[in-house]
Specification:
The complex is a heterodimer of chains A (about 120) and B (about 130).
Chain A (H helix, E strand, L loop, with lengths): L2 E8 L2 E10 L4 H13 L4 E12 L1 H15 L4 E5 L3 H9 L8 E2 L2 H11 L1
Parallel strand pairs in A: 2-3, 3-4, 4-5
Antiparallel strand pairs in A: 1-2
Chain B lengths: L2 E6 L4 H16 L4 H22 L7 E6 L4 E7 L19 H8 L2 E7 L2 E8 L9
Antiparallel strand pairs in B: 1-2, 2-3, 3-5, 4-5
The chains are: A alpha/beta (about 120), B alpha+beta (about 130).
């Protein structure tokens, strides 16, 4: 299994639980999922990366694309990530200033509700 | 350990295999887990860029050379100029391309490019000397 995607609802937010590795091979699948969710009217997204074992700049590009899409509908995109090996790539690319990153889905939903 | 050379056709599915081989080689060379994560990311970025650009070129391939004397060194060679590719999120400019990620990640990296070739040479300090079994 290279990439798994599970979608659920939590307090008016759509949570996408991602598992596996996000790279040049699997990133299109994540992109398609986010595009479909936004096209279906889901503008408050929480991307749970706790099950992700690898993420590179291709994956970051997909996440940025998702952020752009929801923002065009005045929506929000929050991330859940506690793994240092993933947080490192957000830091070295400066994307910790772009994405709200939380320790849990509950914290992400709470922050989204506060800021929207 | 000597040298391992991989000749990789530009299929995106193969990039993970190259990462796994590189991680196993680095682990045998005695690198710690944090450095092994760096190896996977750096090699993945270099190969991912090349594979994305070459995906429609069935006759082309990239080469990955792994050696551990005196320290871990991985060289990715691709038959194109990697500096003239669009960024992963072309349009926003928020995400650096793979080469910039590698430069930010590693202290010892040398990237040389020409019209029809790029060479990304990456090195990591010698491990503890206790190769993983």
């Amino acid at each position: 299994m290279d990439l798994s995607l599970e979608t659920r609802t939590h307090d008016d937010h759509t949570v996408v639980e991602v598992g596996g590795e996000i790279d040049v091979y699997t990133a299109p699948k994540l992109r398609e999922c986010l595009v479909d969710l936004v096209n279906a009217g889901n503008y408050r997204l929480v991307i749970d990366l706790e099950g992700v074992e690898f993420l590179d700049s291709t994956g970051l590009g997909v996440l940025v694309g998702g952020l752009k899409r929801v923002r065009s509908h005045e929506g929000t995109l929050q991330l859940v990530c506690t793994h240092e090996r993933l947080l490192k790539i957000f830091r070295i690319t400066g994307l910790t200033k772009v994405f709200p990153i939380h320790d849990s889905v509950e914290a992400a939903v709470s922050d989204s509700a506060t800021t929207s | 350990m000597g040298t391992i050379t991989l000749q990789v056709c530009p299929d995106p599915a193969h990039v993970r295999i190259v990462r796994l081989v590189s991680a196993a080689f680095a682990r045998r060379a005695g690198l710690d887990e944090g450095s092994i994560d760096e190896v996977k990311l750096a090699v993945g970025e270099a190969c991912g860029m090349a594979v994305s650009a070459l995906e429609d070129s069935a006759d082309e391939h990239l080469t990955v050379e792994l050696s551990d004397a005196p320290s871990l060194r991985i060289v990715v060679r691709a038959p194109l100029d990697l500096t003239h590719l669009s960024a992963p999120d072309a349009g926003t400019g928020l995400v650096p391309d793979g080469l910039d990620v590698i430069r930010a990640l590693l202290e010892d990296v040398d990237i040389t490019t020409a019209t029809d070739e790029s060479v990304v040479a990456m090195s990591w300090p010698a491990g503890s000397g206790q190769p993983a079994l």
